[in-house]
Design goal:
The complex is a heterodimer of chains A (205) and B (196). Chain A is α/β, with parallel strands linked by helices and 205 residues long. Chain A is 41% helix and 9% strand. Chain A has a five-stranded parallel beta sheet. Chain B has a two-stranded antiparallel sheet. The chains are: A alpha/beta (205), B mainly alpha (196).
Chain lengths: 205, 196
């Protein structure tokens, strides 16, 4: 056996032996606190209910709604196409496939802003990209989209445009505005598809 | 910063190109280790040539130790690495079939292609058999679908099922490799050298 061969074997064994005694190290990538603060203060993460409604109506495939409320509330009512990841499960490794996406814009929502914002901070600290929060949450969704109020006479014309959009959206989402026959809120049955891990071509020797 | 493709440092579209390049390098190593000779490969089974064991143990130990250090200094995020899912039934049955084919044919799929590349007739016959096997498997898939998907354990790591740390396992594995090298070198000294 050649000397180099023995030497290289010793190197490999020593390398492996040192590994055992390496101190535990957290290799979690986290956003550094100053950057996080900057992002928290940046309000561009908020999407208005009108914008989200518009994109839902257009069936925009690049948006994924994530409901961070408990499963029971999600079962009662959820936005069409939304998946349910309760706040306490946001950090589960199984959910990383949904929340950490380069190809989709993730819109977090809850009843108000609070839970969605908390989920947003947790995910942002993990370094996830493309995260948004539905401004005002479902409460504002009902006020603005499902039961829009007619603007007072003399309001600027944009308000009326918005109102007519909201009326149409309300009909689309099955809200109660001006439609007496359709007062039920539709809860679409959403089938959650687990995103498969990207399968890499498997190979043996 | 790694793995390079999942982190977007190398665009996704390069996936296949990288696969081809790595495949070529792999074929080169197989050929230069003498693995395109079926006698060398079955030598491990009959106990006169232990190159296969040395090459694959060396490759596994080097990679494991290297990746562990890369992960430690933060060059690679091992949570993004692809872990092949375990289908226990298929692994056992497939392992038996592959082992049988290994001994009777004298090649594993990769080395048979190396043998084809240098024009070995047994390699060509083996590859035809390989294709035939793939054809039969694919056409008869409904018949062995249950077997194929049986006992699915998900993407488990051996350290998770043993409940020990990755690094400890790598060390034990390296010690095992060292023991195997030593024992085979003892055996190697006692037997007559075989020339192919």
């Amino acid at each position: 056996m050649s000397r180099t061969y023995i030497l290289l074997t010793i190197v490999a064994i020593l390398g492996a032996a040192v590994l055992v005694f390496l101190p535990e190290k957290k290799n979690q990538k986290e956003l550094d606190p100053e950057k996080l603060l900057m992002e928290i203060n940046n309000s561009s993460r908020y999407l208005s209910t009108d914008l989200v409604a518009h994109r839902l109506i257009e069936k925009d495939p690049s948006i994924l709604l994530v409901d961070v409320r408990p499963a029971a509330q999600y079962g009662e009512y959820a936005l069409p196409g939304a998946i349910n990841i309760p706040l306490e499960q946001v950090l589960l490794i199984d959910n990383e496939g949904y929340l950490n996406r380069n190809d989709l814009e993730i819109v977090l929502y809850s009843n108000g802003d609070l839970w969605a914002d908390q989920a947003w901070i947790l995910c942002a600290r993990r370094g996830y990209k493309n995260l948004y929060v539905l401004k005002g949450g479902l409460n504002h969704w009902f006020e603005s989209i499902m039961q829009p109020k007619s603007p007072s006479p003399g309001s600027p014309s944009q308000d009326f445009d918005m109102y007519s959009f909201r009326l149409a959206a309300s009909q689309y989402f099955g809200g109660g505005a001006n439609i007496e026959t359709n007062t039920e809120n539709s809860t679409e049955n959403v089938i959650i598809k687990r995103r498969e891990k990207k399968s890499v071509t498997a190979g043996g020797c | 910063m790694g793995p390079l493709i999942p982190m977007g440092i190398i665009p996704d579209q390069w996936n296949s190109v990288m696969a081809v390049l790595i495949g070529v390098a792999f074929g080169f190593v197989l050929e230069s280790s003498g693995f395109s000779s079926s006698r060398k490969i079955v030598g491990l089974f009959y106990g006169y040539d232990f190159t296969v064991l040395r090459v694959f143990f060396t490759a596994a130990v080097t990679t494991a130790v290297g990746l562990a250090y890369f992960s430690y200094v933060g060059w690679i995020d091992m949570s993004l690495a692809y872990i092949h899912p375990t289908y226990l039934t298929a692994a056992i049955v497939g392992g038996l079939i592959m082992g049988l084919g290994f001994i009777t044919g004298g090649f594993c799929p990769g080395t048979s292609l190396c043998a084809v590349a240098i024009g070995k007739i047994d390699g060509i016959i083996f590859t035809i058999g390989l294709m035939l096997g793939i054809f039969i498997f694919s056409e008869g898939y409904p018949v062995w679908e249950g077997l194929y998907n049986g006992n699915y354990l998900g993407s488990v790591k051996v350290t998770e099922s043993l409940g020990i740390s990755d690094n400890l396992f790598i060390f034990l594995f390296a010690v095992m490799a060292l023991a195997a090298f030593y024992v085979t070198s003892l055996i190697g000294r006692r037997i007559k050298e075989v020339n192919y």
